[in-house]
Amino acid sequence: MALNVDIVAPDRVLWKGEATFVSAPAAEGSIGLLPGHEPILAVLGPGVVKIVQDSGEDRLVDIGGGFLSFDHDMITIVAEPADEG
Amino acid sequence: MAGQQRVYKARIKSTQSLKKIFRAMELIAASRIGKARDRVTAAAPYSRAITRAISAVANHSDVEHPLTSERDDTERVALLVITSDRGMAGAYSANALRAAERSRERLEAAGKEVVQYAAGRRGVSYYTFRHRELAGSWTGDSDGPTHAVANEIAQELLRAFLAPADEGGVSELHVVYTHFTSMVSQEPHVVRMLPLEIVEGVAEAGDETEPLYEFEPNAEEVLDSLLPRYIESRIYNCLLQAAASELANRQSAMNTAVSNAEDIVRQYTRLANSARQSEITQEISEIVSGADALAAS
Asked: What is the pTM of this model?
């Protein structure tokens, strides 16, 4: 079982792919998501989204805030560009 | 007589150089339009994600939010019209402005007071020329808007919408932009953007049941962060559509201008030829009659 991850910025898709674990900087502390997590909608603060891919490789994406929605092992992270402060 | 020829020659020359300019602008517009359409497509996943999340929140909670509730404490409404920075795009800006004037009349007939906002230099000059007050204006980059501009516009308009009535608050926000349907058809659209109407149960056709979401930190705050982003992405989308429409309009206007220039060149070439011919005829008849006069004496 893998997670389908979409990270989208206003003007493009930042990253798209499969992962086994994702951690994101939620407003009240970082949250980690594994397959089978309960559906969640979370506000994200500025920080780094960490994606552990199937290959075991880590992938880090800087975001300037945004929100995350998770359901049926689909993660959509709507990200503000990191450089906007 | 020789003067006549010179005038035609000069006209032909200037029309030809204008034609070169028109052709160049047509090509530039044509090359940018693909990019503009790509941007519209590239922005789609973002707005889709936000729309989905919002309808999820709306379906699972009855949260009241200032952005979704009607205001009745003021009759002022904001009207944003999106035009281009430069002309040379046929009736593009004129059409958008005409649509804006129409909806302004309609709003005023309904007893509202319209607060005008404009994006694009053509729109701004239209209103300043008529000494009409603009509450806010944005110029530059009308054919390749960035997200930062959309952000700025959204912030300003949201601030106006959330402000109290006595500090210039508005109760509605309408946006006039040119919708890009296809390369040959772009129409001005008027949409009411605020207050938001949340359409429940959009998309999501079929098997998946809407999951019961957990909100982090809570539903209000999630909505609080979602709705402004939604407005922003809607405005960004309007700007992108308008940019694509502007370029399409410019391309076809320049195309027409090139063929008009060709017509004019052809017409003046004919006139110049016949002027040359009649000049020669006249010279010959002058010489002949001069020779006749000499022979007769």
From this structure: 0.84
